[in-house]
Amino acid sequence: MQPRKIADDIYWVGVNDRESELFEGLWPIKEYGVSINSYVLLDEKNVIIDLSSELMSDRYIEMLKQIVDLKKVDYVVLNHMEPDHTGAVLDLLRIAPDVIFLGTAKARDIAANFYDIRENFQVVEDGEELKIGKRTLRFYSIPFVHWPETMATYVVEDQILMPCDAFGGFGALPGVNFDDQCEDLSFMENEAARYFINIVGTHSANAKKAIEKLTPVPLKIVAPSHGLVWRENPGRIVELYRKLSSYPDGKREKAVTLIYGSMYGNTRIFAESVMQAVADQGLPVEVFDVNNNHASYILTSLWHNEGVIICAPTYEGSLFPTVTHVLNLAKIKKIQSRTAAYFGSYAWGSVAKKQVETYAAEQKWNLLENYQFYGRPKAADLDLLPAFAKKFADAVRAAE
Predict the structure, then answer these.
(1) What DSSP character marks residue 164?
(2) What span, in angstroms and rounded, lies between the C-alpha atoms of 298 and 330?
(3) What pTM does this model have?
(4) In angstroms, rounded to a whole number, what is the distance separating the alpha carbons of residues 346 and 373?
(5) How many CA atoms lie within 13 A of 63 on its CB side?
(6) What distance in Å separates the CA atoms of residue 227 and residue 310, rounded to the nearest whole number?
(7) Cα–Cα–Cα angle for 52, 58, 64, nearest 5°?
(8) CA nearest 50: which of 68, 76, 74?
(9) Distance CA 3, CA 63 (A)
(10) What single DSSP character describes residue 378?
(11) pLDDT tens across 251-293, in order?
(12) How far is 251 from 237, CA to CA, in rounded Å?
C-alpha cells in the first residue's frame, strides 16, 4: 500500500503484515493478517506518531521517505513501546540520529532497555500539550491499554485521536484505509473484538477507564495503530470497545460457549447431545473442538457469552490437556463469573471433576453441573440432559 492522506498535512504510513503466522507469538493472523499503522504530521515541526515492526522496517522506511525527509523529522511520538510499534526505531535513528522521542516516563525506561535510547527522550505528562506550528498535540496517559507506559496522542485542531493499540483490530487493511470505504465492516469489527479480547482483555478494566477518560474529547477521526481509520463514524469503534470492556461486569450475551475435546469419540458424542439439549431451550450455542479451533477464537466466544459448558475426557488421571490450556488462557484473560457446567468420560481413575471444581471457584464460575460417565455415555447419562438444559438455560437468562 501507499501513504494515504487523512487530513491536510497528516498522513497514514503503514504496512500490512501478512507474513507472520502469530501475533505476539500466540494469536493467529496468517489468514487475515494485521496492519501496523503509523502517522506523519507535517508542520513547522515534523512529527511521526508510532512506528512499525522490525520485520517490516525496510518497507516502512521507504514509505516514510515518500512523505518526509527523515533528516527533517523533529519528533517521534512513542505512544506504546511494544516492538510491533517500535521495531523500526533503530533503522530510523541511523538516518535521523537527532530526532527527539516523546513518551511517558515509563516509556523512557523501556526505550532505554529495549533499544539503548538514553538521550533525546522527552517525557510528556498526562494532559500536556506541544505546539508544533499550526497544530497542537495533546497527550493522554492510558496505562495498561495494554502496557503500563501507554498513552494516546490527540491532534487538537483536527480532533484526531491516535491511541495506538486502543480501538485497534486484527485484519490487514483491504486496500482501503477508512471505515466509509470498507465493504465488510462487520468482518473488521469481529477482528477488532478478537483483538480486544486476545490483546487487551486482561486489562479490560483499564480500557474501560481509558474510554471514560477520552469520552469528553471531541472526535472526528480515530486512527489506531492496527486496523481501520474511523472517520465517518469514529464513535462506532469506541462503542464496540466500550461494550467489550463492560462484559466482565455482567450483561453478557445470553448464549453458550461449548468447549470439547475427545480422544476416541465418547466425549464428543456427549457434547453433541448437550448442544442439542441446550439449543432446544432456545439458547444460541457456539461449539469449539479444542483440537481444531485455536484458543484465540474460543476466548472470543467465552468473553461474549454468559454460559460455558466444558466437555472433556480424563487423560492420565487429569483433565484433557488441550482443554486445560484453553482454561488457563481464560484465567489469564480474567474471564470470570460465568454460568458453567462440566461433563466428561473416564476409564479408570480421575481427578478431573475436582480440577474443574477448583478452577470454577477460582474464576467465580457458578458450576451448575460437574458430571462424569464411565467410558461411552449410556442412556441413563443422556437422560439427565433435558432437566440439566432447562436448569442451565434458566440460570444463563437470570444471570446479571
Answers:
(1) T
(2) 9
(3) 0.95
(4) 6
(5) 25
(6) 33
(7) 65
(8) 76
(9) 7
(10) P
(11) 899 999 999 999 999 999 999 999 999 999 999 999 999 999 9
(12) 19
The mean pLDDT value for 166-174 works out to 97
Enter the DSSP assignment of 178: B
Q: Among 211, 299, 307, which residue's Cα sits nearest to residue 252?
A: 307
∠ Cα 384 380 317 (to 5°): 90
The DSSP symbol for 120 reads: S
For residues 134 and 158, the answer to whether their CB atoms sit within 8 Å is no
Distances (CA, A) of 362 to 258, 332, 338: 20, 12, 12
Phi, psi of 135 (to 5 degrees): -115, 155
Mean pLDDT of the chain: 97
pLDDT computed for residue 348 by the predictor? 86
CA distance 89 to 38: 12
Please report the domains of the chain, with CATH numbers, ordered by start residue. 4-248 (3.60.15.10), 254-398 (3.40.50.360)
Q: Which residue has the cell 500500500?
A: 1
Q: What's the one-letter identity of residue 126?
A: D
Per residue in 92-106, pLDDT tens? 999 999 999 999 999
Count Cα atoms within 13 angstroms, Cβ side, for 81. Answer: 22
Distance CA 11, CA 67 (A): 8
Burial class (CB in 10 A: 0-12, 13-18, 19+), 297: middle
170: number of Cβ within 10 Å: 26
Q: Hey, what's the cell of 213? A: 477518560
Concatenated DSSP letters of 48-71: EES---STTHHHHHHHHHHH--GG
**What is the percentage of the chain residues whose pLDDT exceeds 90?**
98
> Greatest CA span in the chain, whole angstroms?
79
- Matching residue, cell 454460559: 307
In angstroms, how far is the first alpha carbon of the chain from the final one?
Answer: 46
Q: Which residues contact 52 (CB under 8 A, 6 or more apart)?
A: 14, 15, 36, 38, 59, 60, 84, 85, 87, 88
- 91-127 burial, b if ≥16 CB within 10 A, otherwise e? bbbeebeebebbbbebbbebbeebbebeeebeebeee
10 Å Cβ neighbour count for 379?
6
Residue type, 61: I
**What is the spatial distance between Cα 286 and Cα 255, in angstroms, rounded to a whole number?**
8
